Sequence to fold (164 residues):
Amino acid sequence: MRTMTGIARFMKVSRTQFEADWTGTPAPWDEIRLPRRATTGSAGYDFFAPAAIELAPGETVTVPTGVRARIAPGWVLMLFPRSGLGFKYRLMLNNTVGVVDSDYFDALNEGHIFIKLYNAGPRPLSIPAGAAFAQGVFLPYGLTEDDDADQPRTGGFGSTTGRN
Fold:
């Protein structure tokens, strides 16, 4: 049996940050569940809906998860829809795959992870509050020999280009 060293930790964003990012009322901060693996062999950590999600065919919705992840340097968190929802309903992430960099944790928005969903299927999709709807997988990454990135992140979601 192999043993693995932890490379990340999930935690909630502050109530203040979550309430600022939540568009509905009231913001369900107390309902936030931290991502978890379902089985010992699962690669993905399930992300749970903090409130019910309704998606008509062709519709998108951005879900503020209330979750942030402290990730060790050299690792990245990749986000995908739950495979069952993708297979049965054609649920997709609007950006295809979510990428959460290790320095996102220190962003101005506390590293709040948002997941933007797209219903590419022909029928409405309902995800109950508390249901798993996405999964995150931690992967190591490499750098080129001539890498010269030396700027710290200052912005939040989608900010590595310096525009946000």
